[in-house]
Amino acid sequence: MSQLYENKVALVTGGGSGIGRAIAESYAKEGAKVIIAGRRESVLKEVVDANEGISYVVADVTSSDDIAKIAAAIENDYNGQLDILVNNAGWAPVTPLKELSMKDYDEAFSLDVRGLVEVTLATLPFILASKGNIINISTVGAQHPGPNMSMYLGAKAAVEIFTRVWAMELAQDGVRVNAIAPGAIATDIWNQTDLSDEAAKAHAEAITSLIPMGRFGQPEDIANLAVFLGSDKASFITGAIYGVDGGQGA
Fold first, then answer.
1. Domain 9-244 has what CATH class?
2. Is the pTM of this model over 0.85?
3. Whose C-alpha in 10, 74, 124, 140 is 20 to 30 A from the C-alpha of 133?
4. CA-CA distance, 246 to 191, in Å (whole number)?
5. Contact between 108 and 93 (Cβ < 8 Å)
């Protein structure tokens, strides 16, 4: 077994399920010590129980107090070491403009944008000290938008701009910043919309019809790229946004 991440410490937000869990488990298999953060302790504990080298912090990234708990765990439990930050926590509302309220805006941008920024700021001193990596999770829709997801796609478009600008700002500090833009990935996020079962099925079928490969991807497809980007094998890559979307972005 390779140990690509031996002596490394990684933080993955939204690490209890889906893409976040796949990334956390892949990092742990490569020898990293991994901290996962999320709101549901039961799913976090399930990941920790199934994997060596993973610990958790119950935290909502829309809460400044909870983000402070994450930073404190890094400081106290890992001697302030953090080599890789994966900003994965997110929410994807599917709501037409005619039905939107400011509550939809506040929820999407609080989690997908503000939470990402605050987690990054809270952990940046650790990342600077380790000359580490930041990996932001975006979406294919940020560059190839579709209807009924304006709040989510607008938030992720901001994330992609942050990725490019932060990469330029931090390059001289030895810190790399990249983003992964998944297409349709088979995760629980498809079950966490306000759509009826019938409407959710129709939405998924409509998405599938746009994918040249004709299927949804798997969380491991994203994790494989995250392992590469966080490693020294990607040492000359920063400010990049990688589509993992079955050809949808083409």
1. alpha beta
2. yes
3. 140
4. 21
5. yes
Mean pLDDT across the stretch 4-15? Answer: 97
Q: How far apart are the two ends of the chain, measured CA to CA in Å?
A: 35
Residues identified as active-site: 152
The sign of the CA dihedral 150, 153, 156, 158 is negative
CA atoms within 13 A on the CB side of 231: 18
- pLDDT tens digit string along 216-241? 999 999 999 999 999 999 999 999 99
Q: How many CB atoms within 10 Å of residue 109? A: 18
For 145-171, write each residue's pLDDT tens digit: 989 889 999 999 999 999 999 999 999
User: Would you give the distance in Å from CA 137 to the centre of its chain?
Assistant: 4
Domain segments of the chain as ranges: 9-244
**Is there a contact between 248 and 144 (Cβ–Cβ < 8 Å)?**
yes
Q: What rounded mean pLDDT belongs to the chain?
A: 93
- Angle, helices 115-130 vs 150-170, to 10°: value is 20
